[in-house]
Amino acid sequence: MASLRVGHWVWVGYLFVWAWSVPLLAFDLVPAGGEFMATVMLVVPGGLTAWWLIQRYGKLGWLSSIIIAVGSWLTEHLGVTTGWPFGAYQYNGVLLPEIVGVVPLAIPFAWLLVVPGALELSRMLMPKVGFWPTVLGAASLAMLFDLVIEPVAVYVNRYWTWLETGPMFGIPTANFVAWWGLAFILALATEMLGQRTNNLPQSPKLNLPIAIYLLNLALFTIVNLTHQQLAAGALGLLLLAGFGWRLHQRQIGWHWRYDQLIQQ
């Protein structure tokens, strides 16, 4: 019961900050010294998603969260120090603190935000397709999410800088391929662990990871549109419209209450 109350207030606090973050980021109104909120806005939703995994899958949820966090951190560390598999890039000191001075702490939480949300959304959009299509769909949804966030992260908030270029938003194609591949591995591990519990059947309701995925997709879409990143903004709008249509088709409504979002 105590964990429900804590989760509820963390969720309420996140929604409050998210609502303020939209206009502040969209219209460049972030006050001096407010840059630390960038880390908060990745750590809190990523932590909430990890907590949902733990509540849903127990010890296997812990293991899944650790695999996502550690696996993404190690891959990002390799990427920054070698240029593989994402391409050559560097973090700019906006997201602090950094793990051993290389990868920001917020980045593993960002992967915790994206991968379970993409996996749950894939399952909800395609409820009857089975194991492998669900995982493949999750990897694709994670990559599409990255296509929307990259222009904001690189050109607006300047979280990181690419040291090479590519045809998509000036970002190397290897980045999006690597995003798909890493998301596939992490989603595969999460789905395999989930199948070992008795809680796997999906409730036909919006859940917390999907809500967090969609809220962040909406945030980055809006910031793209207000900063002339129109291609990424248009992609975000198309994704949100498509997801909304499919969820409406399945008669799945939007929920704000924490207890509704964690129901199994």
Automatic annotation (TrEMBL):
Presence of keyword Cell membrane: no
Query: InterPro entries recorded for this chain?
Result: CruF-like
Record's protein name: Carotene biosynthesis associated membrane protein
The major lineage groups are: Bacteria, Bacillati, Chloroflexota, Chloroflexia, Herpetosiphonales
User: Is the Transit peptide keyword given for this protein?
Assistant: no
Residues annotated as transmembrane:
9-30, 36-54, 66-87, 99-119, 131-156, 176-194, 206-223, 229-247
Question: Sorted alphabetically, which keywords does the UniProt record give?
Answer: Membrane, Transmembrane, Transmembrane helix
